[in-house]
Amino acid sequence: MALLGCDGQAVAEGRVLLAGAADRFRPLLVLAHACRLSHRWHEMALLQEEALRHASSPAREALVR
Q1: Is the pTM of this model over 0.85?
Q2: Which of 8, 14, 36, 46 gives 20 to 30 Å between its CA and that of 25?
């Protein structure tokens, strides 16, 4: 994303994906990843914290970490 110069677009699309999601877990990870590539560290950390709260299994928790 960042390599293609589309990191801002990726964050915007991630937010749209999250807004329409019934299960927020994977969209949270997608958006957190886009924020990481955009150097939005605080936002990334908040999204990862929320994803941890939505992790319903040890495997999902490991995916966040």
Answers
A1: no
A2: 8
